[in-house]
Amino acid sequence: MALLEVKNLSVSFPTADGTLHVVRDVSFSVEAGDFFGIVGESGSGKSVLVQAILGLVPGAQLSGQALFNGRDLIGLPAEELRLLRGAKISMIFQDPLSSLHPQYTVGQQLVEAITTHQKVPKSEARARAVAMMGKVGIKDPERRADSFPHQFSGGMRQRIMIAMALLLEPELIIADEPTTALDSTVQAQILDLLAQMQRELNTTVVMISHDLSVVSRVANQMMVLYAGTCMELGAADQVFTEPAHPYTARLLAATPSAHNTEHRLRPIDGSLPSLLAPPHGCAFAPRCELATELCHSTLPALVEHRPARFAACFYPDTALAAPEPVPASTAVRAAGTEPIIAAQGIELSFTSGAWPHKRQVQVLKGVDLELYPGETLGLVGESGCGKSTLVRVIAGLLQPQSGRVLIQGERLGAPNTESWKKARHQVQMVFQDPFGSLNPKRRVGSIIADPFLIHTNVRGEQLKTRVRELMDLVGLNPEHYNRFPSEFSGGQRQRIGIARALALKPQVVLFDEPVSALDVSVQAQILNLISDLQRELGLSYIFISHDLSVVRHISDRVAVMDRGQIIELAGAQELYENPQTDFTKTLLAASARS
């Protein structure tokens, strides 16, 4: 008997506009000891599916069954579900900081997880909590148990969440995007830790991710979801090497690591169908280049087309066309070319802690970096190494304590000086979180218009025309000029940020993790757009990312940072094939593992 068996589960939400059909007739089973992966684009219903099984979606209408050790969890009274959660089934959420209470120490929260389900003395509960913290790799756990969540790094907070999930030795752990936005080294550590805990404690793991490379690293079984429907199901290694469904194949084709750097990424055209009125046929048919009239009119059943391989497709195993080749990079530096940007001897320190324990932490330690016309310079390193701080110094958003930034040979001055204002026309920045960098109360047209209003005399109809031209340039519908940021998808919001950055026709654009939280297909669209704009407009880029396959795909040269210093700099292919420093080798090895 399977540990978890889901039969014909459907989840819908009544709204003022009609019923949202978020999960539709999904069936799968997870055997004890499995590491089961669930993948799909954002909005495909992954998180709603597992949260519905645990009774964490109030107001939802559920049908079907979710049998845990033969006991149906759907419709189980709230008190009985509460006793199961934590003790028998635990969940690790995507953002550990929002899942941990900021006013309680991590030790207190771990102890509470034990005493809620078991009548044991607090001293014994604390001893168990400290022991589990040590087991998940937190150094000096006795002391760190008295620390608060904000005093840990992102990777350490995720380890605490894993410790909390394991404390009562549950039979099943559900991990919802546990490695999103983590460095490759930390990501690899978290994945190794989950796999190790699974082996040592014989725990079954169900992991959700939009990152296919993460799931391929650890899962032995997997399911591909699209628009709330199961598209493909089977052994993970087979699904990744021989995808049966066109949707799975297109997800893999959109992944940078699957491509030669001279090949254009292949995003999936179109978008998810409306969940208010799902298609009568295959949900993926409107976006599938192989779809026929049958696909549009008839819903394909999930059938076993090979031993233990299931696909909801009338034409499984049909090959897709090869990736479209693109021109080789134009960023070959000619002899004697002067850098467009030169950072020289940049040093910067921040004050850490509160009185009387204040101390100076040096973030940048004499950094030298040059960017040449038309090239993309990738910047990689672990979180906290100074990557984002460096590009903010180059953009003039932070002032270094020593050193200087030269833009076309002219020194960048302090804020609001003439050279600083001139730099706004030459250097622009695109931030990691597009929603966080767009004012939610302002319309997109006015957001993109800001650079013109602040730095130029463009007004009236000419202003509207320029803004609409920018929207069209980055692939946005100019008719959506008056919409608010909340009315756009994540990928579209990133396009808005790029349009705003291009308004003043800069020569340099600094990208700080612009695709870290995007689905692979949307990520491919943005990376293709960035490459197209570089060729069309002759732009130069500095591109920060924790995803080394993305950096390799888009970069001409790569700089590796460690503890505030550039420790290695080389051509992208040379650095990836022949790294010189131990740190770079470790970084690349972690990326390959994750």
TrEMBL record:
<keyword id="KW-0813">Transport</keyword>
<keyword id="KW-0547">Nucleotide-binding</keyword>
<dbReference type="GO" id="GO:0005524">
    <property type="term" value="F:ATP binding"/>
</dbReference>
<feature type="domain" description="ABC transporter">
    <location>
        <begin position="4"/>
        <end position="252"/>
    </location>
</feature>
<dbReference type="InterPro" id="IPR013563">
    <property type="entry name" value="Oligopep_ABC_C"/>
</dbReference>
<dbReference type="Pfam" id="PF00005">
    <property type="entry name" value="ABC_tran"/>
</dbReference>
<keyword id="KW-0067">ATP-binding</keyword>
<feature type="domain" description="ABC transporter">
    <location>
        <begin position="343"/>
        <end position="588"/>
    </location>
</feature>
<dbReference type="GO" id="GO:0055085">
    <property type="term" value="P:transmembrane transport"/>
</dbReference>
<dbReference type="InterPro" id="IPR003593">
    <property type="entry name" value="AAA+_ATPase"/>
</dbReference>
<dbReference type="InterPro" id="IPR017871">
    <property type="entry name" value="ABC_transporter-like_CS"/>
</dbReference>
<protein>
    <submittedName>
        <fullName>Dipeptide ABC transporter ATP-binding protein</fullName>
    </submittedName>
</protein>
<dbReference type="GO" id="GO:0016887">
    <property type="term" value="F:ATP hydrolysis activity"/>
</dbReference>
<dbReference type="InterPro" id="IPR050319">
    <property type="entry name" value="ABC_transp_ATP-bind"/>
</dbReference>
<dbReference type="Pfam" id="PF08352">
    <property type="entry name" value="oligo_HPY"/>
</dbReference>
<dbReference type="InterPro" id="IPR003439">
    <property type="entry name" value="ABC_transporter-like_ATP-bd"/>
</dbReference>
<comment type="similarity">
    <text>Belongs to the ABC transporter superfamily.</text>
</comment>
<dbReference type="GO" id="GO:0015833">
    <property type="term" value="P:peptide transport"/>
</dbReference>
<dbReference type="InterPro" id="IPR027417">
    <property type="entry name" value="P-loop_NTPase"/>
</dbReference>
